[in-house]
Each structure stands twice: as C-alpha cells, then as structure tokens.
Design a protein that fits this description.
four-stranded antiparallel sheet, Immunoglobulin-like, mainly beta, about 45% strand
Length: about 130
C-alpha cells in the first residue's frame, strides 16, 4: 500500500515536471545591429541607417528604443576622434542617425537600445564608411 502511494506520488511529480514549460529569458547577445545600405550624404552630414535584428530568427525589431548613440574612428585606430550623432525618427524598423564626422573614413556607430520584454540593454556597434 505504501509502495503504491510512493509510486503514484513519483509518477504525479514526474508528469508535473514534464508538462511545465519554462521560457528562458533572452539576452542582449541575442540581438545585433546591422547597417542598412550605404550611408547617404545630406548636406555636410552623413545619414546612417541600421536595423536591430533578433539573431536567432533574423527578424527585425521595430519597437526598440535606442537611447544612446555615439560615433568614433576606432576602426581607423583613432577611438578618441568622435563625431556628433543625432537620432532621426525610425521608420518601419529602420533607425536613422545623422552623423557629422570631422573627416572621411571608417567610423564606428555605437548604439544602446531597450527592447520590449528584455531586462538587459542591447548594445552593439556598426562600422560605416562616411564621406564628409
């Protein structure tokens, strides 16, 4: 009788674990920023467009809030040479930035974003050849 109860309890417990689904939270490393096309010159400033992509399925994230954007010439070995960056309105999951570089070359655009439902800040860098 006791054996039967113990066995029944064990089976019930095992079934409970088998049907429990735990969703693992995504990490900021599950996202990446990608350059969209070549930067376009607008007056004396370059317009750089990026998209934020969920790395596991390649789907773009259109509702992120990008709250930090900086640019420097780190890829050219001059990380202390910086440029002003102004965020422009996002359109259809494309995030645009106006960069006013001091000179032509390869610039790094460093971005930080909050993605709805994710506890961590998503950070990334895209390199762009600016022509000013």
């Amino acid at each position: 009788m006791i054996r039967t109860r113990i066995l029944a309890s064990a089976v019930t417990l095992a079934c409970g674990f088998a049907f429990t689904v735990v969703q693992a939270p995504a990490k900021s490393a599950d996202y990446r920023f990608e350059l969209v096309g070549k930067p376009q010159l607008s007056g004396q400033k370059d317009i750089v467009q990026v998209r934020l992509v969920h790395a596991t399925d390649g789907k773009p994230v259109s509702d992120a809030v990008i709250f930090e954007s900086t640019a420097d010439m780190g890829p050219a070995g001059m990380p202390t040479m910086t440029a002003p960056v102004k965020a422009l309105p996002a359109k259809a999951g494309i995030y645009s930035f106006e960069v006013d570089p001091g000179g032509a070359g390869t610039w790094a655009l460093h971005l930080a974003a909050k993605v709805q439902g994710e506890p961590e800040t998503v950070r990334g860098t895209v390199n762009a050849d600016l022509v000013k």
